[in-house]
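Attaching the record inline, Q. Sequence:
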Amino acid sequence: MNRNIWIIFGACLSFCLFAFLYFTVKIHDEIEARNDIKLGYFDALKVVSTRNYDSKEELALKKQLKQETSQEIHIYYSPKQQILAPYIVDALEAARDENQRLIGDYPTPSLDLILFENSEQFFEFSQIKYTNGYYSDFEKIIGILPIDLPEESTMESKKQLIDYMVKHEYSHYALLQKIQAMGVQNNVPEWFLEGYAEYISFIHAEPDPLDILIPFENLEESKQWTHLRLAGAADIYKQSEEAIASLIKEYGHSIIIDILKETGSNETFEEALEQTTGLDYDELEARLSS
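Structure, as predicted:
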């Protein structure tokens, strides 16, 4: 009898070990494929358990910087950037309030906000050109390069720049946490994510008619945005923000969550949009051009 129990126990243990190794390999391979990086198996498990990946380069950089904390967010900056720290804290508080108003509660895993000192350092981490802010959900990093303004700029101008960048990138973090918490499996298009972040970043006035409109079906993927952003023929950020502003104006703040709920039960995002608002992409574009 005891021997049979040990056989069953050993078989269960072997199965659990096999399952653990199998899923570790699957998770590792998926993370590498999605993020185009080389990752150790232990690191892959750490990413799953903490929902955060800290590279060796990131850890080394953070050791060189000053740090302060605002709730779940660790803010890193060089000594000469310390004057900007209070503006960052204020912008984060405002961003939390605005996101809460539009999408309600959302998970708040630990997040790093890093002020970079130069474009070379910024590009090393972001791998994005011609921008000064990014958010990585994989690494849970907001990266900001606050050098768009000349040295003689007033502190008010610098405050406005920090306010815009922090609100925009934090809103990416907040909305993605909400989407994941809702269990939305279908892809949410880039124009919706960027439009939401832009809407939070600005004190929104009445929508302005746009001179050039890009079909929303061409604004769904990140690679499409990269191409259009570099081409510079149209203001795709403004177009996306105006779309979000138009939807919120007509249907109220709850429309963001309503559309996301439908996204989980429709084959495409456009179908979810039409199910919620009665508007397909062509009709939404027509609204923005009128």
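Strands lie at 66-70, 73-77, 111-115, 133-136, 141-144. Residues 183-289 form one domain.

More tomorrow.
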